[in-house]
Amino acid sequence: MIVNDVDTHNMDGDNEELSKETNDVPNTEEHRNNIHEVEDNIVSNEKYKRRRKNNRKDIKKDKVIKQKDCVKWTADLHAKFMKSLEQLGEGKCYPKDIVEVMDVPGLTRMQVASHLQKCRFNNWRSPEERKSSRRTSGQESLSESQQKSSNRKYGTMPRLQNNIPNQIQRGLEFPFSTPNTSNTFARGESSIQEKLYPPQFQVQPHYPSIDNSLNNPFFSVQNSVGGVLQQHQHRPLLEMFRSQRLQDPIVGNIIHRPGSAFNTWNHHTQSEYNLDLNVVHKKTHLGSKIMPDIGVGNRAINDYNLNVNAGNTITYSGSTTMSDAENVTSDEVETINANFQQHIAEPNMSYPSNIILTNKSDIEGSDSNEREDCDGYYNFNHMGYFFQNIGPPGANLPNSYDSEFDQVYSDD
DNA sequence: CGAGTAATAT
DNA sequence: TATATTACTC
Fold first, then answer.
1. For strand C, is any atom closer than 7 Å to the CB of A70?
2. Which domain of life does the protein's organism represent (predicted)?
3. How confident is the model at residue A126 (pLDDT cuts 50, 70, 90)?
């Protein structure tokens, strides 16, 4: 179960041995891991201060350096956070509101704000994930800045939305949109964004990275079986999806992982997706494995028809290897245009307006994926994935559901 | 001013 | 690094 309390232990706080290492930020992973205890564990500020004080007598009582208590954003806590966002719905995802909804003792607005900020950029990773993933920090120069400016999520102040280049920039600020568009940005913004960003897919290249879906409540992992993606559903609202950021070649390799488990709150429903792929010029040299998850987080959308057009897709997958992304080679998916039409079955369903297709490879050792917010996030390792699940190249795509698929793979 | 966010500090 | 704090805007 999820706990309601903040795990606000201070970095060294929980540890019996106070920072012997340093007086300030012993906030190391190890440390964290050690203190990874339960969620209910709250260490009060006072205690913390006291401890510190004892430890270092020269500290002023009310000053206490500067990080008072740190909230450890555990997966559960984060989940709760996310849930709050969801609950709040459009226009209300502001720290203050979030705090209220979360109703976690000790959790402050600023803390939430900080977390929110982090999440906006998709930079947050759950502790669990942190453990497993090693670094990857490599390159992220160019796109980074873009991303920053472009990734807004949750309710944010709409203020400068001036020149939004185009959809690439990103989708709605608030991922949950309603069909009506009254989407509100309660704080006075207009819903122009919706207009600006009609439903569409986007594909972006990115570098190999580990999929975070498991740890990220944003995502619901889903399985894909024969072209049908199963999603976990939570609410009628479209949830936020994230995409990974990428930049270069997509390295691919694939495998599919049948269900993964995570989700703190998952109830799901299965929706059907129809994918129509049109792949032109595709070459695939496939190596092998690794499992990506396809993450589509989303809910309540019942039917999507996806038309995916991938042009010029070349995929070379190396063998996977972990930790070395280099030997995996270039996959380039130059373009994937996906058009998708959705059928909104229910009135209050929201629809995705911005979906990102990406592929990712799961290479151990690399993680750093940043995801960007989008309404839909599809993580394909590479086109092979499609073919595997949807149909082999050259084969007809399964059309089991009512829609007709436009086409089928034309290979060169 | 309070609140939200970007940027920065720790 | 993750989170807290600051500085700024609105």
1. yes
2. Eukaryota
3. confident
Distance A109 CA to C5 C1' (A): 13
Whether the Cβ atoms of residue A300 and residue A237 lie closer than 8 Å to each other:
yes
Report which secondary-structure segment, H or E, holds A337: strand A331-343
Q: Confirm whether pTM is higher than 0.70.
A: no
**Closest-lying nucleotide for A116 based on CA to C1':** B5
Cα–Cα distance between A166 and A168 in angstroms, integer?
A: 5
Give distance CA A65 / C1' C5 (Å). 11
Question: Which tokens belong to A362?
Answer: 């799961």
Q: Residue A93: which residues within 8 A CB-CB, separation 6 or more?
A: A85, A116, A154, A155, A156, A174
In terms of Cβ atoms closer than 10 Å to its own Cβ (0-12, 13-18, 19+), residue A134 is middle
Instruction: Report the 10 Å Cβ neighbour count for A389.
Output: 21
For the purposes of burial, counting CB atoms within 10 Å of the CB of A247, is it exposed (0-12), middle (13-18) or buried (19 or more)?
middle
Could you check: is the Cβ of residue A9 within 7 Å of any atom of nucleic acid strand C?
no
Query: In Å, what is the CA distance from A257 to each residue of A289, A381, A406?
Result: 10, 11, 27
Per-residue pLDDT tens digits for A229-265: 222 222 222 333 333 332 222 222 222 222 222 233 3
Distance between CA atoms of A22 and A44, rounded to whole angstroms? 21
The answer to whether A30 CB sits below 7 Å from nucleic acid chain B is no
User: Which residue's CA lies closest to nucleotide B7 at its C1' atom?
Assistant: A117
Helices (H) and strands (E) in chain A, counts: 9, 14
The amino acid that residue A321 corresponds to is T
- Inform me whether the pLDDT recorded for A282 exceeds 80: no
Name A305's bridge partners. A274, A341
Q: Is any atom of nucleic acid chain B found less than 7 Å from the CB of residue A24?
A: yes
- In this structure, are residues A90 and A186 in contact, taking their beta carbons and an 8 Å threshold? yes
Q: What's chain A's average pLDDT?
A: 42
A25: its two tokens:
């930020």
Ranges of H-type helices in A182-338: 192-196
Does the nearest atom of strand B lie within 7 Å of A97's Cβ? yes
Strands A354-359 and A303-316: unpaired
- Point out the residue nearest to B2 (C-alpha to C1'): A96
Residues 365-384 of A with CB under 7 A from strand C: none
